[in-house]
Write a structure and sequence with these properties.
2 helices
Length: 147
């Protein structure tokens, strides 16, 4: 990727001002809370947020959810369930980035994102170990090589 394309990609993934990092609905009629707008779609009040960072030719996509783990016996099942959900958010976010990058007013070509093998990482951070509902942050990160 050349400097101009990296700059375009950086502008697309930038959500530091004027855009939001919470995930969105595909269709407005699914959004029962009203609509705000982000660059990548209508915003939703959500407990899931997705962030992207660039490091040279690598792009890290991190999605974070706040969940109730419940009893100790069901925690593993809940974590697996939210990992699958976060993977869906990450894949949807990648496809939106690719779509916007390909637009004529941006790069005008397809963005290639190749997932780096064994780059998925899940972090679970308990908010309160002693509460009955056992809330936790679950972060899912995937690293892609972009070209």
């Amino acid at each position: 990727m050349n400097f101009e394309e990296i700059n375009i990609l950086g502008n697309i993934i930038n959500d530091s001002w004027g855009t939001g990092s919470t995930n969105y609905y595909e269709r407005e009629e699914e959004n029962m809370y009203g609509s705000g707008m982000t660059r990548l779609g209508p915003a939703q009040p959500s407990s899931v947020a997705t962030k992207v960072s660039l490091h040279g030719e690598n792009m890290t996509v991190t999605s974070l959810a706040i969940i109730n783990l419940g009893s100790i016996g069901s925690q593993h099942k809940e974590i697996t369930k939210v990992e699958n959900e976060l993977d869906q958010h990450i894949n949807k976010y990648i496809s939106k980035i690719k779509k916007e990058f390909k637009m004529k007013e941006n790069a005008g070509r397809a963005l290639k994102c190749k997932q780096i093998k064994d780059s998925e990482k899940t972090d679970v951070e308990m908010i309160n170990h002693y509460a009955a509902n056992r809330r936790a942050y679950v972060r899912r990160s995937v690293v892609y090589e972009v070209s």
